[in-house]
Amino acid sequence: MATRRPYPILTRSDIQTDARGREMLAVEAVATSVRSKRSTLDREWRRYVVLLIVLDTLVVLLSLWLAYTVRISSGIVTYGGPSDLAAYRTLSLASLPMWLVLFAVFHLYRRDYLLGGTREYQQVLKACTAGIIGVILLSFLWRDQFVLVSRGWLIMAWTICTTLVMLERFSARRIGYMLRRRGHLVNRVLLVGANAQGLAMAGQWMQSPTSGMQVIGYLDDFKAIGTEVASGLKVLGRPRNLHELAASLDVDEVVVVPNAIAWETFEEIISNDSHSGDYVMRLSPGFYEIMATSVAVTDRSFVPLLTVHENRLVGVDSAVKSVLDIGLGAPLLLLALPAIAAAALVLKREDPELPWLETTPVLRSRDQTFRMLRLRTRRPDGSSSPFGQWLEETQLDRMPQLAHAVAGTMSLVGPQPQPLAPGEHDLRNTRSERTLKPGVIGPWSVWREWKPSEELSHDLYYVRNWTPWLDLQILFQAAALSARGIWRRASSPRRQTPTKRSEGRQEAPDA
Questions:
Q1: Per residue in 171-192, pLDDT tens?
Q2: What is the rounded CA–CA span in Å between residue 265 and residue 239?
Q3: How far is CA 425 from CA 151, 356, 419, 420, in A?
Q4: Taking the CA of residue 286 as centre, how many other CA atoms within 13 Å lie in the half-sphere pointing to its CB?
Q5: Taking a C-beta distance cutoff of 8 angstroms, is the pair 234, 228 a contact?
Q6: Residue among 267, 269, 268, 244 nearest 255 (CA)
Q7: Distance, CA of 34 to CA of 216 (rounded, Å)
Q8: Cβ contact 396:339 at 8 Å
């Protein structure tokens, strides 16, 4: 009787070897393409920083010279003090190294502060203020020569320098973004954790060619190696092999999503410092997908804590947003008043018994509401006159909302207003896009591919990516569309529940 051949017994080492083989195959497939594009990232950043130093040098000297010209030598402003050009020139040149050192102290040449957010401009303000203080101290040390340095010159130098350096940094960003679109100044990123948050972050970076974040793939504890979890992105291995895999893939940054991996694995990653500075390790708070508020790090006796602000914009960002709303909204409201009055006369002539202005209860932010103004375009039976239809098509029925922007209940640019249904007071279904005030116009009114089902995507994109320049871009696009007379017809926004609103990935705006 023939003996039955036993089934082969796989030991734990065999299983690990097999998994390790799949891991190495997945890594090698990606590493081959990455190595063929291995960039000189550090060299590119050094060149960019050198460009900033040269521009800063020229702008600081130009600012000090312009301040002297306007305040002292031009005669525009009466000045009766000492006006020795050579003395001011010597002081300006002597203070130049101090300016550059202060710019470095305030992180204006640090990668994390460049090409993203408004923090760079905040640091410019601080550095220029410190620079003027430094000039005062320097003139005091040389008081025999500079005892009568003009206070008007100092104030004008601070104003001009702050303005010009901000404009210079804005222009330098445009250069940096252009380089990133061409594949330069881009960090290779490995994401640890392929859950919803990890996928959302990768999607955000992949949408924006100026993010400077090229996601190579994922490490995950739970998905099989080689699994494609996003468009062109696969699970390349296990988080426990992070440092070895990051070195093989020539990674610049590793982003860890703590709640997407086992706690033991997370502890091992954090405690293992064997990467020796070959890449930067960053931790995601793990709630990116569900939150669009502002978060700040607070230190309590050397314990770092995340402070979640109620609103998306706080501090300087909130002030800049308010300046845009009032500074542009007030002149626009004054210009619109005659048009509003004319529209009111036409509406009253068509329907004398009906009001020319209507109000709608609208969500403001979080649990606040207000009554939003707009010109009446429809009768109680839902019909509209030709003039009312024209107001809707041109969105001129929104003109009274400029008063909300000036008063602070709305923004000139913001998310789509969300009216409440009659008698509705339950605000528990409000979403994170309500962390900004609703806008008179917004991405939903200028993006050509906008559809009602994509409202949530566009709102969240705007909330998460807000900058003053995005507001100006939307305003310019709105002006261009209005000038060409091709405003998309926009009827009153209808209340939608979150279950009916699109949860699809965000779309980038038409630049």
A1: 999 999 999 999 899 999 999 9
A2: 7
A3: 57, 26, 11, 8
A4: 11
A5: yes
A6: 269
A7: 8
A8: yes
- The answer, as to whether pTM is greater than 0.85, is no
Q: Phi and psi dihedrals of 500, rounded to 5?
A: -95, -5
Which residues of the chain are in CATH 3.40.50.720 domains?
22-38+186-290
pLDDT digits (tens, 9 = 90+) for 90-118: 889 999 999 999 999 999 999 988 988 77
**DSSP-assigned letters across all residues of 102-160:** HHHHTTTT-GGGSSSSSHHHHHHHHHHHHHHHHHHHHHHHTHHHHTT--HHHHHHHHHH
Backbone φ and ψ of 234, nearest 5°: -125, 165
Q: What percent of the chain has pLDDT over 70?
A: 72
DSSP string of 293-322, one letter each residue: S-EEEEEETTEEEEEEPSSS--HHHHHHHH
Q: Report the C-alpha gap between 225 and 365 in whole angstroms.
A: 43
CATH 3.40.50.720 fits 22-38+186-290, yes or no: yes
Q: Which of 224, 212, 287, 209 is nearest to 252 (CA)?
A: 212
Residue 470 C-beta-side C-alpha neighbours within 13 Å: 23
Q: How far apart are the C-alpha atoms of 152 and 157, rounded to whole Å?
A: 8
Q: Which two tokens stand for residue 351?
A: 């329907």
Give residues with Cβ within 8 angstroms of 267, minimum separation 6.
Answer: none
**Structure tokens, 359:** 């109000």
pLDDT tens for residues 339-362? 999 999 999 888 888 889 998 888
Query: What residues contact residue 496 under an 8 Å CB cut-off, 6+ apart?
Result: 452, 455
Residue 114 structure tokens: 């460049």
User: Among 33-37, 38-42, 143-147, which stretch is predicted with the lowest mean pLDDT?
Assistant: 33-37
